[in-house]
Structures are given as structure tokens and as C-alpha cells.
Amino acid sequence: MERLNAIIEKFFKIFSDDMISPKFLDQAIRTTFDNRTLPKADLEDICNEAKAHWLMYMRKKYQEICDKLELEGSFERLNELIAEQRLSRSKEVGWQRTGDVEADTYGSRRDVKLAHIQKLKAANVELEQALREKKDKLAKSKKELDAIIQQI
Q1: pLDDT number for residue 81
Q2: How many CB atoms lie under 10 A from the CB of residue 27?
Q3: Percentage of the chain with pLDDT > 70?
Q4: How far apart are CA 121 and CA 116, in angstroms?
Q5: C-alpha to C-alpha distance for 48 and 52, rounded to whole angstroms
Q6: Which of 138, 16, 149, 152 lies closest to 65, judged by CA?
């Protein structure tokens, strides 16, 4: 087990986190060790343990990011924007069915449709801005985590 942890840690030090995936880790271990070096059963055990170790590592890293940014509360506005956009899409489908009534009430059909498109564009801009902010926060946190990992 200590040998396995040493092997896995070596792979984590060599490759960046973005490159490491369970499939990549499996292939790297299999190319490093072949059937001549280790029995096939031991090689399978090492690959399975490496995948489990990778999952635990990624869960820990994800939890650290979540704890740092407190993501549970920060995505509320983003979820609201998504819900508004879904609601407006469902209204659009309803508007197409009752278009004549709405056209009489609000003016021409074209004006109603243009107003609806403008609302969707505004919602998309807000959503993109919120996503950009979250992406920036995650990038900053990733840099901080990388710095902490480098110190360790």
C-alpha cells in the first residue's frame, strides 16, 4: 500500500491536476508497469486503488473549493436567472399558441416578439456575467490551492 501511494503521489507531482483523470492514471500505471514487472492481478489492484485514491483526492479538493467559496449560497442568483429564462421560454411557447389575442392586446405580433427577445438577451447577459464571476472566483481559488499544494 505504501508503494502504491508513492507511485500515485509521483504521478500527481509529474502531471498537472487538469491532465489527471482515472483513465489517464490507469494508462500511465499500465505503461509504467507491465506484466513482466508485476503479476496481472497486482497490476489490476494497483490500477483500482489508484482510481479510488484519485477520486478521494478530487473530492477533497472539490470540498476545499466549496468551503472556501461557500458555493451553496452564491449560486442562488444564478439559479434564479436560469429559472426566469426557462419560464420565459415556456411563455414563448404559450404566446405562439395565443398569438392573435396578445397581438391585439399589446400591439403587433412583431413588437411583442421583439420585446420578448430583448428580455431574453438581458437575462443571457446577466447569466454570462454571473458565470464569468464564478469562473474568476474558481480560478483564483485554484491558484491559491496550487500555491498551498506547492508549499506542502
Answers
A1: 62
A2: 12
A3: 45
A4: 9
A5: 6
A6: 138
Number of Cβ within a 10 Å radius of residue 140: 12
Contact between 112 and 91 (Cβ < 8 Å): no
- What is the pLDDT averaged over residues 15-37? 65
Contact between 119 and 88 under an 8 Å Cβ cutoff? The reply is yes
Look at residue 24 and give its three-state secondary structure.
helix
Residues with Cβ within 8 Å of residue 22, at least 6 apart in sequence: 51, 54, 55
C-alpha of 84 from chain center: 22
Q: How far apart are CA 91 and CA 97, in angstroms?
A: 10
Q: Compute CA distances 135 → 2, 62, 96, 126, 142, whole Å.
A: 37, 14, 36, 14, 10
24, 22, 20: which is closest to 12 by C-alpha?
20
81-112: per-residue pLDDT in tens?
666 766 665 555 454 444 444 444 445 566 66
User: In whole angstroms, what is the distance from residue 33 CA to residue 46 CA?
Assistant: 10
Average pLDDT along the chain: 68
Give percent helix, percent strand, percent coil of the chain, each to the nearest 5.
Answer: 85, 0, 15
pLDDT band at 53 (very low <50, low <70, confident <90, very high): confident
